[in-house]
Write a structure and sequence with these properties.
Protein name: NUC173 domain-containing protein
Largest sheet: 2 strands, antiparallel
Strand order of the largest sheet: 1-2
Subcellular location: Nucleus
Helix content: 55-70%
Pfam families: HEAT_RRP12_N, RRP12_HEAT
Keywords: Nucleus
InterPro entries: ARM-like, ARM-type_fold, HEAT_RRP12, HEAT_RRP12_N, RRP12
Number of strands: 6
Strand content: under 5%
Radius of gyration: 43 Å
Length: 1251
């Protein structure tokens, strides 16, 4: 962003937004008035002189100094040098007053900054005793420790800028750098001693020391500005900073790290400052803390790591040769009992390997480099001994970093370590298998599978006695193999796969055993490794020969389960070489994994000339026999080989496909056969398959192949009886627009394509509408200014598509409308020949392209004959108005608003629904001064539809009124609202006030709970575009205050404080939030306690015998015994059936409804809504075992009582009958059913029931 000129800054001051700036504007106006009276030119020098004369006026000191701060950067430097003493003398009282206002001090600092930047080397030689630049810098250093944040920050910024811009002199450092460094050191030392003394006396906590943090910030600013700290003061600074870091205060430690980072950063970027680096590294190593110091040792290790990182950037070879000593020293800390020390040490060792191993060691190592590698590996071997057992995870991280750093040079040095890790991993009792798998995976990626399998063989086909099988290596090989020798797969893994598969074949058709299933799994795992071998292989031309290609082709045909892996492998072998061949930079063998650009191009040429055509034939056949949901990988592989096949072979292949497609289009499938297999999974027709292949091949075809391509498109596009085929034809144009060759083809043949689109408009099917719109949008950038008549020709189709039911089609229509608008705006002034537009007269005048003309074209649909067309036109106008509102003239927008205001009076709901969307967009986005005059008629017209409840009209009107009130004020909206409808405005206003009070109350609650430290959460957008948000957002709800009071949920009282996260912890042990695995116990959903199974007593009958196999539902139907202590016998049961919680109630139109409320003792598992008795009274009564009126007991058993009046239980087992019946005994277990008189218990006095 360009900086503002003096005139722009002064103009901004003359129109102040704040009350405090008005005095400054008055002073500036007085100065400019004086200029006009004296005919003085308003230059920076004139402003400077005028303000200097006013500086003595104590009442105007604040605005004058503010204006001086604005003017001095534009004042000539000689003038500033001449007036330095005068200005400094006048500003000194302001800077030294402790109670001076912060704005005045900030302006004074700005003036001083400009004055000091203008001083030459001679002025900087003056001592601090004289009134000169050094004294001014001393004042800035004291202000840089001011307790006020803005004042302190402004002073530090001024110092940084001054030190970064030294005066012209032989010295590179600024003359004031030593002085600033000395002052910072003194302040740091004094404050550190004070803080240490306070902690000893326990007067203050470590976190309550802001003065020391301010001093550290000042030190950081000076270190960042002066290109590194002065060499003579580095040692004392390091000692002082490490002492501060010892305090254990996290804020102090971070500030110390920042200072060292600034010093190192200055050394890394400045060649001269980097000369101080060896001394700095030596000092840091000399300040080595005690091995058991858990507070100081981790920060010291981090600083040491950063020091060697910078050293490796400055002198990589020397740093690598000196790496053994610090590596051994830091590795010793992994023996520490303190976990934080072990973690810091491992991170330092990882940093050493990642940053201090130069590329030269990998490409052409010297003898000394190899010795260094051997010593590092020896140290690494010691870390895997029992002595470092507590640091197993940290050691694995270091070993993984060593594999990643040494890459292919890790072999043979790390083979012994790899074998040790593999042997430990194979032990069943070993607990660190996950870490071991990660290390072995990195070993496979670095050294290659051949080296790793040499020391850790699989032992699957021919197991060696005493050696374990290592099938667990296969998933690691799948995930980590790349950039290796493909010949190893052919010689080792392919024969192993064949041997495993032969065992499966030998099993025959018998039922598969577990062993056979394991063999099949091993086969699949082996072939899943092939894509890794094909990812940039080192021996492509030697290993990928005709025999291997034939084997892959046969597998593609015969083994359906292996197709995915083989397709991925073939795709990888092409695309990995293409990535290297297309690299714009020069060869970087480490980055390119030892494959040069020349070798990659040679590999691609070999594949294209030798195998591409044959593989494409195989893949075409495989594609035609693959189900649609599994065709993706095959098509991607076809696309990869099409990109490397020679042009002549591609043309031949395309001609063959075209011939077959023409024949397939002539063969129309019988409708009966199609309907017969409608519900069965079947392959697409041959025409669909061939059309997919044509679309895929299109971007690689030469220009002369466009004619047959266009013939295919013209044939298929008119096939409205096959929408899927039509969709594929329309996808041709977007596909062509993705390649440079395709773009040239579209640009050259745009007229032919335009004619094709216009002639096929009546034949487009509904499913293909979206693809047609996308195709037109892809063609739009290639239409020249001489063919702009295509836009009005297709405009009506695009407008009517804005009302499509398919959301993707509507989105494509909106995007195309916007693209057309941008096209006409970019072509402003070009002529549009309307005589070439369909349904326009031959003598139609030519018009000039512009945005206004585009809106006129779209507005023509407002005169449509159907409400659907009018509604679509309004929707289209709404979209383009929102997009181009900043480019349209005020008159055009006013006319549109006036026109839509008239449509609000329409009686058609479809039209009015679109107009309400237009009104909402206008209220949100159009200028206030444009909309205010229209509100007098717009608001009454809108309010008419507030009484319409269909189609959500009432809620839409309410949201529009909320937006109006927010933007124009409640007074304006109420003024124009009809008297009868003002209750709605009052409701909105009160809801907004309630929401505001709730927010303030919630805010006060947060502050009282200490919530000021919480950062506000970012609102997540629910809409894909700004237009969707403007059109479909629901008023206040998008601004976090629910103004729609009637829509607010009643059960929730205010928003829940904090985030939507819950801690899941054990009842006996609280969650350790410092644990690495603590994140696994944080849930985004409220945890529910698992219900413990209730222990109930065993159930017995009256004889004391156990009752088994009886669930709660059966007991609910059993009425042998009273339940729940209620009086369920006789009259009690009758009253309970009439008025109890399970009794039916009269609902709408007199229908009986069952209650769906369940009490604590309700064992009924049936769901909720209740059932009309008119539809099934008997079934409902049966399900609930409820009251049945006159008893109709038909149960047979030991007591064959006939239910009397008021009987309960109906058709269940009969228990009680009539009034006061005696309970009959239940049949014991094992006793047969008996019919006849009761064997025990009395017979109830029967009522008049029917048997």
């Amino acid at each position: 962003m360009a900086s503002m000129t003096l005139k722009e800054k002064l103009d901004k001051i003359q129109s102040p937004n704040l009350q405090s700036q008005k005095q400054t504007a008055v002073v500036l106006e007085g100065i400019e008035t004086a200029f006009k009276e004296r005919n003085t030119t308003a230059s920076s020098t004139a402003y400077f002189a005028a303000l200097l004369s006013l500086l003595d006026n104590k009442t105007l000191v604040t605005p004058v100094v503010y204006l001086l701060d604005v003017v001095t950067p534009f004042t000539p430097e000689p003038l500033l040098r001449a007036k330095f003493t005068q200005i400094l003398t006048l500003l000194a009282p302001v800077l030294t007053q402790p109670d001076a206002d912060a704005p005045l001090i900030k302006s004074s600092i700005g003036c001083l900054e400009s004055l000091l930047l203008a001083q030459d080397a001679t002025a900087w030689e003056m001592s601090t005793a004289q009134v000169g630049p050094r004294r001014a810098v001393g004042g800035l250093l004291s202000i840089a420790l001011d307790p006020r944040p803005k004042v302190r920050k402004r002073a530090q910024e001024a110092l940084k800028k001054i030190l970064k811009n030294p005066p012209p002199s032989p010295s590179i450092d600024h003359p004031a750098s030593p002085m600033c460094a000395e002052t910072c050191m003194q302040s740091l030392k004094l404050l550190a001693e004070k803080a240490s003394q306070s902690q000893k006396e326990k007067k203050a906590e470590p976190t309550q020391n802001p003065e020391l943090i301010h001093a550290l910030q000042l030190t950081k600013a000076v270190a960042a500005a002066s290109g590194g700290w002065p060499s003579k003061k580095i040692e004392s600074l390091c000692e002082l900073l490490l002492g501060i870091a010892r305090s254990g205060n996290e804020h102090m430690s971070m500030a110390v790290f920042d200072i060292f980072e600034m010093i190192f950063e200055g050394m890394a970027t400045d060649e001269v400052a980097s000369a101080k680096l060896p001394r700095l590294v030596e000092i840091i190593r000399e300040l080595r803390p005690s091995p058991n110091d858990t507070q100081l040792l981790p920060p010291w290790i981090a600083i040491l790591s950063r020091a060697y990182d910078v050293s490796a950037q400055v002198s990589p070879a020397e740093t690598f040769q000196e790496l053994v000593e610090p590596f051994v020293m830091v590795a010793g800390y992994l023996e520490s009992e303190a976990k934080n020390i072990r973690i810091s040490a491992s991170e330092c060792l990882v940093s050493f390997m990642a940053n201090c191993v130069p590329q030269q060691v990998l490409l052409e190592p010297t003898i000394y480099d190899e010795k260094v590698i051997k010593q590092l590996v020896k140290t690494m071997e010691n870390l895997l001994t029992a002595k470092y057992q507590a640091a197993w995870m940290e050691s694995c991280n270091v070993l993984g970093a060593m594999y990643d750093a040494l890459r292919w040079r890790a072999s043979p040095y790390l083979l012994g370590v790899t074998k040790n890790i593999g042997d430990m991993r194979g032990n069943d009792s070993f607990t660190g298998k996950a870490e071991a798998d990660g290390v072995l995976g990195k070993a496979i990626r670095a050294m290659g599978p051949e080296a790793v399998l040499g020391v850790l063989p699989l032992n699957l086909a021919k197991p060696v006695r005493g050696e374990p099988g290592r099938a667990w290596l296969l998933p690691l090989l799948r995930d980590y193999v790349s950039n290796t020798n493909l010949a190893h797969f052919r010689s080792e893994l392919a024969p192993l796969s064949a041997a495993m598969f032969q065992r499966v074949l030998d099993h025959g058709e018998a039922e598969k055993t577990m062993e056979i299933k394991i063999y099949e799994t091993v086969v699949h795992q082996i072939w899943s490794i092939l894509p890794g071998y094909c990812d940039l292989p080192l021996d492509l031309e030697e290993a990928f020969d005709t025999t291997f290609a034939e084997m892959l082709s046969n597998l593609l045909y015969e083994q359906i389960d292996l197709r995915l892996d083989i397709c991925r492998a073939l795709k990888a072998v092409v695309e990995s070489n293409q990535a290297i061949a297309d690299t714009p930079e020069d060869d970087d063998l480490v980055l390119q994994s030892r494959i040069t650009k020349e070798a990659a191009k040679k590999n691609l040429e070999y594949l294209g000339n030798t195998f591409a055509a044959d593989f494409l034939s195989v893949l075409f056949n495989v594609y035609s026999t693959t189900l649609p949901q599994k065709r993706g990988p095959v098509l991607q592989t076809i696309n990869a080989f099409l990109s490397i096949i020679p042009s002549e072979r591609l043309t031949e292949t395309f001609d063959v496909v075209c011939e077959k497609l023409a024949a397939a289009l002539e063969d129309v499938p019988e409708k009966g056969a199609k309907d017969k297999n409608k519900n069965q999974e079947q392959l697409p027709s041959t025409a669909h398959t061939l059309m997919d292949l044509v679309v895929t091949m299109s971007i690689y075809l030469p220009k002369h192949s466009f004619d047959p391509l266009s013939k295919i498109a013209s044939l298929v596009i008119f096939r409205d009886d096959d929408p899927q085929l039509q969709k594929k034809a329309y996808k041709l144009i977007p596909r062509l627009a993705d390649s440079e060759l395709g773009k040239a083809t579209l640009e050259q043949n745009h007229e032919q394509l335009q004619a094709l689109f216009l002639s096929s408009a009546e034949k487009v099917s509904a499913p293909a509408r979206r693809d047609r719109l996308v195709a037109i949008a892809s063609l739009m950038p290639f239409i020249p200014n001489t063919a702009l008549h295509f836009i009005p020709a297709v405009l009506s189709e695009v407008v009517i598509s804005c009302k499509e039911q398919n959301e993707k089609a509507r989105t494509a229509a909106f995007d195309l409308l916007v693209m057309m608008g941008h096209k006409l705006a970019a072509s402003e002034g070009a002529l549009i020949d309307n005589s070439k537009v369909a349904n326009m007269p031959a003598d139609a005048p030519m018009v000039s392209a512009s945005l206004e003309e585009y809106f006129t074209m779209v507005s023509a649909g407002l005169a449509g004959s159907t409400p659907h067309m009018i509604s679509a036109s309004i929707t289209a106008i709404t979209r383009i108005l929102y997009e181009f509102r900043g480019s349209l003239s005020t008159e055009t927008m006013a006319d549109l608003v006036q026109t839509m205001d008239l449509f609000l009076t329409s009686n058609n709901r479809e039209i009015v629904k679109s107009v309400l969307g237009f009104v909402k967009v206008c209220v949100i986005s159009l200028p206030v001064e444009l909309m205010l005059p229209r509100l007098a008629t717009m608001i009454p017209n809108v309010m008419v539809w507030s009484h319409e409840h269909k189609g959500h009209f009432r809620s839409k009107v309410k949201h529009i009124l909320e937006r109006m009130a927010r933007r124009y004020g409640f007074e304006v909206v109420t003024k124009h609202c009809p008297e009868a409808d003002r209750k709605l405005i009052t409701n909105i206003r009160k809801a907004k006030e309630r929401s505001k009070r709730r927010k303030e109350a919630a805010k006060d609650g947060d502050e009282s709970d200490g919530g000021e430290g919480q950062e506000p959460t970012k609102r997540v957008g629910r809409f894909e575009s700004e237009y969707d948000q403007a059109l479909y957002s629901s008023g206040e709800s998008d601004h976090s205050d629910n103004s729609d009071g009637e829509d607010a949920p009643k059960g929730k009282k205010g928003a829940r404080k904090g985030g939507n996260a819950y801690i899941v912890e054990d009842e006996n042990e609280p969650l350790d939030l410092l644990d690495r695995n603590a994140l696994a116990n944080i849930s985004s959903t409220k945890p529910v306690k698992a219900k413990r199974p209730n222990k109930t007593k065993a159930k017995t009958d009256l004889d004391g015998k156990l009752i088994l196999g009886k669930d709660d539902d059966e007991e609910a139907m059993d009425i042998d015994a009273p339940q729940g202590g209620e009086d369920d016998t006789g009259v009690g049961a009758y009253v309970n059936a009439l008025k109890g919680k399970d009794a039916p109630r009269r609902g709408l139109r007199g229908k009986l409804k069952w209650s769906n409320r369940k009490g604590n003792d309700d064992d009924d598992d049936e769901g909720g809504d209740g059932m009309d008795v008119d539809e099934g009274v008997t079934q409902a009564f049966k399900a609930r075992g409820g009251f049945r009126g006159r008893g109709d007991s038909r149960s047979r058993g030991p007591s064959e009582g006939r239910g009397g009046r008021g009987g309960s239980g109906g058709r269940g087992r009969s228990g009680r009958g009539g009034r006061g019946g005696i309970q009959a005994g239940r049949r014991p277990l094992g006793q047969d059913k008996q019919h006849g008189p009761t064997m025990r218990g009395g017979v109830a006095k029967g009522g008049r029931g029917r048997k």
